[in-house]
Amino acid sequence: MAAVQTAPAVKVEGEPPRRPVHGPKGPGAWLRSLIGVDESVLSMAPLDRGRYTAMALIVVNAGILAAVSMFIMIEKFADVPLLAALPVALFWGWVIFSVDRWLIASSHGTQSSRGVFVARVLLAVVLGFVVAEPLLIKIFEPAIHRQVAEDRRVERAAKLSALTACNPVPYRVLPAKDITSCKDRGLLLTVGANPVAAAATVTSLNAQVSTLSKAIDKDMAALRRLERLGHAECGGERVGNETTGVIGEGPNCRQIRSERASLLRTSKLPDRRQQLADLQARAKNAVEAQGVVNAGYSTEIAREIDKQLPRPEGKIGILEEDDALLALQGKNLMVFLFVWLLRLALITLDCMPILTKRLAGPSTYDRQVADHAAADMETHEVFLKHAKTQNIQDRVDALHLLDEQERHRRLHRERHESEARNEQDEQVKQQIRDLAARLKGRPGAAPE
Fold first, then answer.
1. SS3 of 16, please?
2. Rounded distance, CA 141 to CA 139, Å?
3. What's the rounded Cα separation, in Å, for the pair 391 and 413?
4. Residue 8, SS3?
5. Long-range contacts: 251-259, Cβ < 8 Å, 24+?
6. Range in 7-16, 112-121, 153-162, 358-367 with the lowest mean pLDDT
7. CB under 8 Å to 298, separation ≥6 — which residues?
8. Residue 235: its pLDDT value, please?
9. How many helices and strands, by DSSP H and E, does the chain display?
10. C-beta neighbour count of 1 within 10 angstroms
């Protein structure tokens, strides 16, 4: 808006003029200029100076708070030196100040509609939230850091329990349902030690030892039975229907002894006992090897689990701090109320210039600005009207000039055609005279 130069008021005899009142050139004028106040117009409404100075201070304070907020946020996000963070914070404060300045300057001399007012308030609310959050985190930083430490401890314990359940020590085979659940959650760990193979080897050797032991025990039971029956049959002892009870070395006695000797030959008990001893030694060694593998597996699993666990120490990010602040609000009603009161106070601070202008209605300065704007529009309309009139006159003059030029061209053409006709008539007359002279026999030029 162009500054309007006001003429000094006419002095009435006996009374000094009161308008305009030119204020001092100082910080107040400079502050008001930041929100687009025209001092030449405000000089005719000196009572509004304090109002607009206060508005300018609110806008400046909002920009300073925004710079501080951004400085805190940079400290949280990036580890940069002060000389690098300060320009970024100042630039952000300048951006917020520029937006707030536009919100105020654009409302001078106007009474915006409800939709425009709501849009401006919403923009101020958004800016207030952006400025408020880092400041809130800084204010509650000690409590937030304690909450973050507690959250990390709980998270570490929960993940340790889940990793231990999915990777049991000592190793054991998990049910298929548990394996699927652990795999979906990414909790299965892979290490160099292979307890599965060691367990399979021990199981296989134990199974072989058990099978061979059962076979040897079965053959030994059969041998003892044949020995008992042979002693009973040869000694004449009656054992149910299995012996005859006749003493002496009869056919049945010899048959039983023959079966026992055949069983000793076919069973190969000495070889199988040696094989059993070898298997038992191998099984013992496999158990010892399994113990070594399980010890290595336990060590490697413990190391991998420790790598997977979140660190209780380390830099705390702003998102983690925001989650901790939410947790504190949920735990403590006083924290919840104070956080929202402070947040609303900062938002209200950013909305205050717009709200005060809306609630207080148009000031004298606003009405004067509107009048000057209307006067400027009238001047502009007069200028346009004059320009249109001048344009029409120029077009009329151009048409007159074109008509004059066309008339001159037409006269010149008619004069040229008349001279051409006269010359042609003279040539015809000369030809007639020449022809008449030849007909009379007197060649030569005919008398005029």
1. coil
2. 6
3. 33
4. coil
5. 256/226, 256/229, 256/230, 257/230, 259/226
6. 7-16
7. 169, 170
8. 67
9. 13, 0
10. 13
Q: Give, rounded to a whole angstrom, the gap between the first and last alpha carbons of the chain.
A: 89
Lowest mean per-residue pLDDT among 59-63, 248-252, 331-335: 248-252
Q: List the one residue out of 57, 136, 66 whose CA is nearest residue 338.
A: 136
Q: What is the rounded distance in angstroms from the CA atom of residue 66 to the CA atom of residue 345?
A: 14
Are the beta carbons of 256 and 226 closer than 8 angstroms? yes
Question: Under DSSP, is residue 247 helix (H, G, I), strand (E, B) or coil?
Answer: strand
DSSP one-letter code for 25: S
The secondary structure of 332-344, three-state, reads CHHHHHHHHHHHH
Residue 3 predicted with pLDDT over 80: no
Q: What are phi and psi of 252, to 5 degrees?
A: -65, -35
Q: Which residues pair with 15 in a beta bridge?
A: 12
Q: Using alpha carbons, select from 36, 35, 80 the residue that is nearest to residue 56.
A: 35
Tokens describing residue 155: 């998270």
Q: At what angle do helices 27-34 and 49-77 cross, to 10 degrees?
A: 70
pLDDT digits (tens, 9 = 90+) for 193-247: 667 777 778 788 888 888 878 877 777 777 777 777 777 767 666 766 666 666 7
Whole-angstrom distance, CA of residue 165 vs CA of residue 159: 10
pLDDT at 407 over 50: yes
Please tell me the predicted confidence (pLDDT) of residue 9.
47
In this structure, the chain runs to a length of: 448
Cα 127 from Cα 92, distance rounded (Å)? 11
Strand, coil or helix: what is 313? coil
Of 433 and 255, which is predicted with more confidence?
433
- What are the structure tokens assigned to 227, written together? 């020995």
Integer Cα distance of 354 and 289 in angstroms? 80
Looking at residue 19, its pLDDT comes to 53
Q: What is the helix, strand, coil percentage profile of the chain, to 5?
A: 75, 0, 20
Give the angle subtended at the CA of 346 by the CAs of 340 and 348, to the nearest 5°. 95
Distance of CA 203 to the CA centre of its chain: 54
Residue 96 in contact with residue 131, Cβ under 8 Å? yes
* Separation CA 327–CA 241 (nearest Å): 88
Instruction: List pLDDT tens digits, range 116-129.
Output: 667 767 877 777 77
pTM of structure: 0.47
